[in-house]
Specification:
2 copies of one chain form a homodimer. In chain A, the strands form 3 sheets. Chain A has a 6-stranded parallel beta sheet, sandwiched between helices. With 337 residues, the first copy, chain A, is α/β, with parallel strands linked by helices. The first copy, chain A, folds into 3 domains: 53 residues, 434 Repressor (Amino-terminal Domain) (Orthogonal Bundle), CATH 1.10.260; 127 residues, Rossmann fold (3-Layer(aba) Sandwich), CATH 3.40.50.2300; 132 residues, Response regulator (Rossmann fold), CATH 3.40.50.2300. The first copy, chain A, has 12 helices and 12 strands. In chain A, strand 1, helix 5 and strand 2 form a beta-alpha-beta unit. Chains A and B meet through helix 4, helix 5, strand 2, helix 6 and helix 7 of A and helix 4, helix 5, strand 2, helix 6 and helix 7 of B. The first copy, chain A, binds a DNA duplex (16 and 16 nucleotides) through helix 2 and helix 4.
Chain lengths: 337, 337
DNA sequence: TTGTACGCGTTATCAG
DNA sequence: CTGATAACGCGTACAA
């Protein structure tokens, strides 16, 4: 197995210095076109690729951005990541993805790992995390962007939407249709500002109608099908039975719909179900899922552009908010009289 | 913004040489425990993290493994990746994921990028790709593993299952139930050995019954809902109408079920539908999807262990095959008399 | 426009 | 068990 070719090998073959080869690679316009083509030929001959470590060491940049997401196992973050990656790729920046499985300690670990790898920037989901992490990021001066979460006075660069307002809008619509027996299956709110905000939004709307969300009407579960189904079965066993179950995301809602069916009930006739996120899943359920559409791809793109903006530190625009839209489909209907 | 601390800073504070600090980090047992703790204190004080580039340059390893997958947008590869990542993390290896969007040129690019980043190993999906890529990998001596695809005489290390046999088994079951009007919606077979093998498997079974798959009964589409639905609508417009649609994966099958419903037909009474992959999606469809269960997680784990085995080059076991199982659920039933 | 030469932070070899 | 020091491959002032 041959040792990997180096700048020197290429330079030797092209009859130039390593500096020139380096320039051809990084600032081609600063090299006479004749030499340039000679160098390029040599590069091609060796199938030369710059050594990442050497480059990182000399330039102190890696052209790498890291993202830490809770999980790849459900599709929620996939689309946004894809967009992020595509946007970064346009600037020849590589995306490194790590998962934390909704565990703050593991997230901290992953952040450390990525920083250790010298990422030039970091994308993190949501705002809720230990202050020491923010301190570390600031100390190291690594640019970062929070996505999926947004509030006007967020002290960090963030790209997202108002989870609370979106959930409030959904709950308002539910109430407007006449529902009064409202139950909710939320994600685990601990250490999760999105899940928390969504619960608060629902509470807001209920309060406007003089209602509230009893402890017995609110269950927190992990974001997976089985958990959603189990929670729904529990809620539907109560008397009076809820006429609607508002879910913290689409996966939970899918589980809830499964439970409804398995109990011999029908949605939305016996009980309505709503979701959040509008992933593909929402379109294959029966009935189709009423949910909150979230601008996955645009968040990814915006995060990329924020990170790629060099003057990010003093930039005015460090805070991007997107609108969400309520998508009404078959799973939500007025309660049966 | 303070410059990042280096080995030297830590060494200075601990009153030792940089070599010792390095040893504490990499082979703690080779340092007296007293000095070790002094060094550790200094490391903690500076919140020191080794510089990735420096380390890569000196050791010529990155503790990084790359994976190039077609897409993150559907859940098909997510679970396997998650398992891969978890297994690698146990050995302190970081996974870098890149996507190629089912485009061979883009895949080649991504492979090059990852090699440029100095990954210690590579995970690739399937076997079908330009020989020059394999040549490049061999020349550079970078270990790699093919997953999701398998055949006994595959010349490269591979971890997967027999796509053709699995599809054949599914089609046999379909025929056994009495179906004779069989249609198929496959993935795009070009440059995709899995999609190709699945079509071949279906053809095998049909042939055993003296049947074949007319061009009009086979449509290739991208792996997404809309494409699956469109293809199904097309197939269902034919006379005689197929009594079953065998799909190349679950996402396509979900689209097909949508189409069935939108045409006012019912599955499986009017037409059966089968999938492939057994992702979560299969469990939320109505009817539940009959599909082929694929060992996502075990493939990920096996790929990790192959890659982490140092003597992989001369290893006897470079070729791991898993069984698939046919999961019968509601979407497949005998044809109506 | 091109070349020379140094430094980036770490590991590994070799003495001690 | 520890220290000195030579690589490792590249980018970039600075000089020519």
């Amino acid at each position: 197995m041959k040792p990997r070719p180096t700048l020197e090998d290429v330079a030797g073959m092209a009859g130039v210095s390593t500096a020139t080869v380096s320039r051809v690679l990084n600032q081609p316009e600063r090299v006479r076109s004749e030499t340039r083509s000679r160098v390029k030929a040599a590069v091609a001959h060796f199938d030369y690729t710059p050594h990442f470590g050497g480059r990182a060491l000399a330039s102190n940049r890696t052209n790498t951005v890291g993202a830490v997401i809770p999980t790849m196992e459900n599709a929620i973050f996939a689309r946004g990541l894809q967009a992020l990656q595509e946007s970064l790729a346009e600037e020849a920046v590589t995306l490194v993805v790590a998962t934390a499985n909704y565990d703050p300690a593991r997230e901290a670990d992953q952040i450390r790992t990525l920083l250790g790898r010298g990422v030039d920037g970091l994308v993190l989901i949501g705002e809720a995390r230990d202050p020491s992490i923010y301190a570390m990021l600031e100390r190291r001066g690594t640019p970062f962007v929070l996505v999926w979460s947004w509030r006007a006075d967020c002290p960090w660069p963030c790209v997202g939407f108002d989870n609370r307002a979106a959930a409030r809008a959904m709950a308002r619509r539910v109430l407007e249709l006449g529902h009064r027996q409202v139950a909710m299956i939320a994600g685990i709110t601990r250490d999760n500002d999105r899940a928390t905000a969504r619960v608060e939004g629902v509470r807001d709307a209920l309060r406007e109608h003089g209602l509230n969300l009893n402890a017995s009407r609110l269950i927190e579960t992990p974001y997976n099908l089985e958990a959603g189904a189990a929670a729904a079965r529990h809620l539907l066993a109560a008397t009076p039975r809820p006429t609607v179950i508002v879910c913290g995301n689409d996966v939970i809602a899918a589980g809830a719909l499964n439970a409804v069916r398995s109990l011999g009930l029908e949605a939305p006739a016996d009980v309505s179900v709503t979701g959040f996120d509008d992933i593909d899943l929402a379109l294959v359920l029966d009935p189709l899922l009423t949910t909150v559409h979230v601008p996955h791809r645009r968040m990814g793109e915006a995060a990329a552009s924020l990170l790629l903006t060099p003057h990010m530190r003093n930039a005015e625009v460090r805070n991007v908010v997107f609108e969400t839209t309520l998508v009404e489909r078959g799973s939500l209907a007025p309660p049966r009289k």
